[in-house]
Fold this sequence. Notes:
A: 392 residues, alpha+beta, elongated, B: six-stranded antiparallel sheet
Amino acid sequence: MWLWRWWQWWIGEVTFSAEGGLCEDFLNLLTEQEGVSLWDVHKEEDRLTACCRASSYRAVRRPARRTGTRVRATAKRGCCFRFRRVSKRVGLLIGAVAAMTIYMILASYIWVIDVQVEEPLLAARVEEALGKSGLAVGTPSGAVDLGFVRMHAITELSELHHVAVYLDGCTARVEVRLQEPSAPLPDKSPSNVVAAFDGRIVEMQVASGQAMVKTGDAVVQGDLLVCGAIETQNGVLLKHASAVINAETSHTFCVEVPLCETRPVREKRIVQTRWRCLWWELPLFSSVPIGEDYAVTERYTPLRFLGTDLPVGVHETVYSAPCDATLRYTAEQAECIAKRRLQAHAAATLEDAVIRRVTYEGVWEDEVYRLRGVYDCTEDIALQAPLLSDFA
Amino acid sequence: MGFSKRIESMLDLPEGALSGELTVELCGTRRVILDGECDILLYADDTVCVRSKGQTLRVTGHRLTLESIGSGGMVLTGAIASVEFL
């Protein structure tokens, strides 16, 4: 039904009323002799209302005269009537034509390059590579050879595994897949297993090689735990020793926090903003000298409409540099910071260890708080070491 | 049997397809479709009479409306009470 309504609106529709005369004769003459189609015909007492196409309305008058019916148009709907209303305003017409022309011209250019990759640095490099092959903002869509652009991007950037470029209106969408790093081959060369730390062995699981220690033994760093050279009846057999040797170990870490220290706490930032429209950029900042120690980050935020990036947006250049600040702590703050730093360091260092017990010992010396932490752990102390040259 | 009726019969065409005879199609009690050339004899809120090739058809009911009308037929809607040939 909506399609029929839309068609009626497009061709134009006139609703008219007919009074007096013989309405049956009027309808017969109108439909058979004039060939006019009517719809929504209603009759209320002596008054008939009906709808017809706008182009057929002129034909209504003749049968009306012949049957003595008075006809009057009561409503006009449709695009032709609307257009007629605005057609007298020449400025509007010229504006509409100009807008349509500009739209048609601009629609044939690429205004947005959407590189679908998470790393912004790589996205910038991909855009640069695309620009070299002829795909840049402001390029006519018809002048872009997508196959060449794709091949050029792949050859230019070795880390890319797959590049797909396709045009979506004024947007060039670039899908990029990176080369997946191949897993390193397992090392199977002849080797020993030695102790990575001092400790007392509590559990041993030797997968390959000959165990040189047993559970309960105390070892120091560098002691041979599992030997990769096995003596057999046919001579010495060299193997890649591998084992899990869990031992009770002890680690000591120390941090110092002075009451007054200088630390990089924040960044000096200078943001230069530009409005971008198509390929023009309007700077919204005054020029200031910027030192060479600043790191530069480019950021572009396009205006979006219904999920589509428009060729209008904000381009920001962010200059940032670390800035040191002198911090003064109270004694309580210093102790708290020291403990936090020590814990963070221990967590990072003893990532794979099970911490059984921790003891802290803090002292003040010349306005510096020294905190010492002893971590008793259980961990795997097996460390691969190359075989001695006598065997190898 | 006329020539056009004979052709209709031979080709298994719907009756009246070639002869221009009035075809009446009823859709429940809400709509009557009249296919073929016909003249309106009477058009009122409760009665519509049409004539086609010497036959007169009367449709009675309430709130009868001509949904569409053209040279090839008409569609009548409303609460249809009866359709009869006079």
